Sequence to fold (312 residues):
Amino acid sequence: MSNPSRRKMIQYAAVAGASAATATAGATVAPKRKEVTTFVFVTGANGTAAADAELTMRGHRSVGVSLPGHGPSEQFTRAYQTPQDLNKLATMPSPVAGVTLDDYVEATVNTVRRVSRYGPVILVGGSLGGAAITKAADEVPDLIDRLVYDTAYCCTNLKSPADYLETPEGKPSLSGNIVPGVIGDPRVIKAIRVNWRSNDKKFLDGVKAAFMAEAGDGEFLAMLNSLLPDESLQVPNADSRGHKDKWGRVPRVYIRHSRDRVIPIALQDRMIREADAATPKNTFKVFTVNTSHAPTAKAYQQISEILHRLAK
Fold:
């Protein structure tokens, strides 16, 4: 084996010195290595695991949680590709049939446990992903440095995201605009399946108004074509409330989307108020971005900036 170079020897010595410094009286203490924050992202409905390249460029770590049944290899099929086989698409078994919020939480907690060895963890949930990060905080509150709800469900007084959509604040939601794109019988395939690749004008106009009203058609369609067709039937109705002595002691942030027509701003504010009332000694730090539910690339730059500033 070749002899180590002088540079390598210096590096080895530095590592050894750092380990021994605290044990040797009078020894020079090596400078403490700056810890790197890891952002863990939990997607909303129909999303895939995704990280934030901007945060990585700024020196942080960033990773998306792979939720059960939410891999492109599991959901993108020939029947979904154009020209579509709608009869087959309407009856194919779903990879998220039977998938529960507990399954989402398990995947999230496993990711948090893996990355927490390397530094602080900021757990970010978008939309329906808020349910998963709340329950993950119940499981491992000491491993999470901060929770971030990015226009996400945070259930406190009511049990589930579905319950919040039935409130006066949730009634104006345009989430129902996806209904014309639903294909197949949810009772048969055990999932909600949406044909995001439909070219029906009424459907596309309705979904754009709900999710990404300010985007150009190209950016909107690119977002739409990245979505998975299937989402769990069970997760939106699951009990997503956090425990005050677990979830309730993790510092938390809410990023409001002021133009959101899926989770209306009044509903976002209601969830913030109820959570703050439940844990008055640990209230939300609130930011606002002037964007729809699904932000454009330009609007997301503001969200990345907020997240960057939250890192230690």
Remarks:
- The first strand starts at residue 38 and ends at 42.
- Residues 6-20 form the longest helix (15 residues).
- Residues 44 and 128 are 4 Å apart (CA to CA).
- The two ends are 41 Å apart (CA to CA).
